[in-house]
Amino acid sequence: MDNFIELDSIDLVLALGIMGIAIALSLWQRLGLERQLAFSAVRSLLQLIIVGYILDLVFTLNNPLAVLGILGIMIAIASIVARNRIDKKIKGLLPLVLLSLLASSAFTLGYTILLIVQPVTWYEPQYVIPLAGMLFGNAMNAASLAGDRLVNTIRQNRLVIETHLSLGATPQQAIANYQREAIATSLIPTLNNMMVVGLVSLPGMFTGQVLSGANPRDAASYQILILFAIVLTNLLVAVLVTQGIYRYFFNQDLQLID
User: Fold this and answer.
1) Do 65 and 72 contact (CB within 8 A), yes or no?
2) Contact 168, 235 (CB under 8 A)
3) Which of these, 30, 84, 128, 158, is most buried using a 10 Å CB contact count?
4) Cβ(187)–Cβ(235) under 8 Å?
5) Interhelix angle for 176-196 vs 125-156, to 10°?
6) Helix/strand/coil for 197
7) Does 255 score more than 60 pLDDT?
């Protein structure tokens, strides 16, 4: 295998040229995306550089408290983003999203680290942080899609739900179909990716390991592991989020409220 080729500061400047071309193309086509593209490029550049230095320190420390601290910050940010995408007006939604993300990700991550990867220490940052980051990011999207779909569906079908309630259905029964649809919707991006992985797209973990010099077969094994872990995490978080969200729409008398 060839040695890993490191990118220096000049290479990063040249990489910015890619965004420069994109901005120029936006100007040429009068898309009005120049400011968004520039802002996103600068923000992502700064974020990744800062994260790179922080993770380098965490890897050097190799301390469980440092690893847990990084994971705590990551999941807190993911929870806030997911809550905002679902609905900022629903009071008490953030704790629900946070606990759902934490429970689903912790279960899958624990299974993956303790039973499959089995590093020397459970908090090995080389394994725990990248795996957790991929699970958090995908779970955030799944929670957002499931929660947003259920909230909007309930609000758009108030008459149907109230009819079910008047006929003796419980709130759980009245929204059961909507909950299943919301969960299924949240898994569509993940399932679509799984259908074409390796044929159309080469995912991040696979590509990253190959670029770092890993054997493609080993890279494929890790990618299979993370794909399956993402599916389970996304399904768990979608179930937990939708199970909690619908309760915000019914009072103690089992009546539908706004």
Assistant:
1) no
2) no
3) 128
4) yes
5) 140
6) strand
7) yes
Query: Which residue reads 């995490």 in tokens?
Result: 233
Tell me how far apart the alpha carbons of residues 186 and 181 are, in angstroms, rounded to a whole number.
Answer: 9
Looking at residue 88, what DSSP letter applies? S
Q: What predicted TM-score, i.e. pTM, was given to this entire model?
A: 0.86
Q: Where are the alpha helices (DSSP H) in 5-87?
A: 9-29, 34-61, 64-86
Residue type, 184: A
Angle between helices 64-86 and 93-111 (to 10 degrees): 130
Report how far residue 208's alpha carbon sits from residue 224's, in angstroms, rounded to the nearest whole number. 14
Say what the pLDDT of residue 201 is: 67
Instruction: Write the pLDDT tens digit of every residue in 160-183.
Output: 999 998 898 889 899 999 999 999
The whole-angstrom separation of Cα 241 and Cα 63 is 32
Contact between 257 and 165 (Cβ < 8 Å): no
Length of the chain measured in residues: 258
Run of H or E residues at 228 = helix 216-245
Contact between residue 180 and residue 140 where contact means Cβ atoms under 8 Å apart: no
pLDDT digits (tens, 9 = 90+) for 194-238: 888 877 766 777 777 777 777 888 888 888 899 999 999 999 999
Instruction: Determine contact, residues 168/106, Cβ cutoff 8 Å.
Output: no
